[in-house]
Specification:
Length: about 140
């Protein structure tokens, strides 16, 4: 009976886990490019344990982490795009195969969720626009 409980506790402790962390950012504190307004930084991570080359389910692949976790979270926050994406995954071939004996694999992805701001250049192309006028250049800051 005690052995069954220990096995159950060990299985629960090594079960696959995933997490998504988000932090809202102020547009004036993070630069991502012209006509892009940053709204959040997102980090998604998934880890799966292995015991005797048998994976405990965890969907450790970049497709899952990027498309189903990172981009889905960005869309839920109201973002149009994610920029500056960085990914990392534990390899599953070569010498890394021995890690599947007793070990784990992990994958993570992070990026900045942005909203696209409309470009002001095409806004005045109607009949009442001043098509031939030129604007004064911006003044230099002292």
């Amino acid at each position: 009976m005690l052995l069954r409980r220990l096995v159950l506790v060990a299985m629960l402790a090594t079960a696959a886990c995933s997490s998504i962390s988000t932090v809202r950012v102020q547009p004036e504190t993070v630069y991502v490019g012209p006509h892009l307004r940053p709204i959040a930084v997102i980090h998604a991570q998934v880890t799966s344990a292995y015991l005797l080359w048998i994976p405990i389910p965890g969907h450790v692949d970049l497709d899952y982490v990027v498309n189903r976790m990172l981009l889905a979270t960005a869309k839920a926050l109201g973002a149009d795009k994610v920029v500056d994406i960085q990914v990392d995954i534990t390899p599953d071939n070569g010498i890394w195969t021995l890690r599947k004996l007793i070990g784990y694999r992990s994958a993570s992805a992070s990026g900045v969720a942005v909203m696209i701001e409309p470009d002001g250049s095409g806004a005045g192309s109607g009949a009442g626009s001043a098509a031939g006028s030129t604007a004064a250049p911006p003044r230099a800051q002292p």
